[in-house]
Amino acid sequence: xxxxGALLFFLSFVPGPxxxxxxxxxxxxxxxxxxxxxTADYHAAIQFYQDLADASDRITIRxxxxxxxxxPLHLVVISNRKTDVDRIRDxxxxxxxxxxxxxxxESDGVDxxxxxxxxxxxxxxxxxxxxxxxxxxxxxxxxxxxxxxxxSGTRANQNGPREYGFRGNARNYDxxxxxxxxxxxxxxxxxxxxxxxxxxxxxxxxxxNGADYQHVMTTSHSQKDKxxxxxxxxxxxxxxxxxxxxxQQDGFPTIPYVNSGGRPPEQGFSQFLxxxxxxxxYAALFQTMxxxxxxxxxxxxxxxxxxxxxxxxxxxxLLAKDGQRIQEIRxxxxxxxxxxxxAAIAWEVDRDKPSRLEFHGYEATYVDSxxxxxxxLFYDRSKPFVRSIAYYNNYRPSKKIRLPAGYLVPRGxxxxxxxxxxNSVELTVVQKxxxxxxxxxxxxxxxxxxxxxxxxxxxxxxxxxxTNERVQVAPGDVIVPIHQQRARYVVETLExxxxxxxxxWNFFDTILQRKEYFSAYVFEDSAKALLASNNQVAAxxxxxxxxxxxxxxxxxxQLKFLYERSKHYEESHLRYPVIRLKEGSLEGL
Length: 589
Hints:
The chain is built from 18 helices and 19 strands. It is an alpha/beta fold. It folds into 3 domains: 2-338, Aminopeptidase (3-Layer(aba) Sandwich); 397-514 and 573-581, no CATH class; 520-563, no CATH class. Helix 4 (42-55) runs parallel beside helix 5 and helix 5 packs across helix 12 (301-339).
C-alpha cells in the first residue's frame, strides 16, 4: 500500500497534456487553500516553486546569492524553452522581473505570483504566445528575514491576511531604501540578479498605507520626466495608459499612488518621486521601466491579491506585444544619455503645470477625536464620489551638470569601486603614473539629518565648488569612462549633488573631518609670517575683519582662517576624491 500511494503521488506530478484546471487543483497555493485568508510563508513558497519546477520544464528555480537572514535568495524563471539563466540577455526576448515581499507584511504579490507562475507554466492555451516574446523572472520573497518574522499585528492599518511578515529585514533594514548603498546582502544579491537579467520591466509588489478611497490598485512608477528621453515619453503616452485601460476593464480602475501627505486626496497631490534608493528609481538608472503595485490596505485581502494578479497579467500581455519596441528605445536611450552635453541629477515638481486625474474617493471631513484632543480626519464611505482632481506629475530638473569624459576613483576608495563592479560598470585600471587635467570638487557645505536613517546619517543637501587642476594619477586608480551603457548609474552615484549619490549616503564622510590640527601658541609665528609674505591672504584677512565684527574679535577664528590658507592645511579636507576627467585626458591612461 505504501508503494502504491507513493506511485500515485509520483504520477500526479508527471507533466503531460492535461487541462489547465487540473494543474490548478494539483498546485493550489496556501492562499487558495485558505479561501484567501492566508499568505504563504517562506518555506511553503519556495517548496511550491520547487514542486512546479520538478513538474514542468518551463520553470527553473535557482539560488542567487545569500541574504542577511542566512537563507539564499531564489530566482524563478519561466520560459517556453530551455534557457540558460546565466545567458538570458543573449536571448532576443524581453524580460519581466517581479520582486515580492520587499516588505513581507505587504504579501499580495507573494500569493498572486505563485498562482501566476503556475498558470503561465501549465496553461499553454493562454500563455504560449506570450512566452514566445517574454521571459518571466520572479523573486518569490526578497526580504526573507522579515518574512520569517511572522506576526499578526505590525500592519496596524491593514485588512488581512491573518499572518504576515515584518517590514525590517534580518538586520532591521528597510530594503526599499538600500538599492544604491547596498548595506545588506539582500541588496547585493538583488543587484546581481538585476544586472544578469537587465529586465525591460520591473514590478515590485507592495500595499499602500495612506488615505482611504475606492481604488483597490494604485501604482508608484517611474516618473516620466526623470526617466526622460524616449522611454519616459513611451511610458507616459503608451505603456501606462494601455495598462490602466486594461485594468479598468478587469474591474480595477487604477491611478498613481495617492501621495497626499495626510490631506484629503481630492485637494490634489503630486506624483511620488522615486529616487534611486527605491527599486523603481534604481531601475531607472539602467533605462528600465519600474512599477510598484500599491494595493489599498483597507480592501479585503482576496480582492487585493486579485488586483495584483491582474496587474501581472496585463503587464505580461503588454510586454509581449511591445517588448521589441521597448528594447529598441532602451538601447537608443542608453546611447543618447552619454552623448548629451549635460544631464539632470535632481528634480523638483512643477506646480505650474498640473494634470487632471479621475479619482474615486470618499468625502473627507474633520471630526472631533474621541481619543485625543482636537480633530481627526474621517472618510465617509457612505458618500463615494468620482471627481477630476489636480495631479502634479510634471517634474523639471533642479540641478544639471555637464558630463565629463569620465571619472577617476582613487584605488583606496575600494567600497565605491566594488559597487561600480557589482553594477556592471565598465572600468579601466591605471597601469602607470600620470598627470591629467581634471575638475575637482570641494565641499562647501552639507546639511545632515540629526537622527539615523537606514543605518546612515543622510546628507539631505550638498553644495560644491569646482576647480580645474592638474591631478596626479597612480597605478591601481580606476578610470570610469562616461561613454558606456551604465553611464546614468555612474553619474547619479558619483556626482555628490545627485539626489541619492554615494556621497549623500556617507561613503566619503572621512573627508569632512580634518586629521591634522595646530596649536595656537605655536602657529602664531607662522600666521605672522604668512601675512607678511602673502599680500593676497593679508588682504582677504583684513577684508573679513572689516566686514565681520564677530570674526574681528575672535582670535581662534582668525588663526583658523590663516591656517586654512597656509602650507600646513591638509589638501584632503573637504576635497571630494572622485575627480572629473576632461576630454583627451583618458588617452594614455
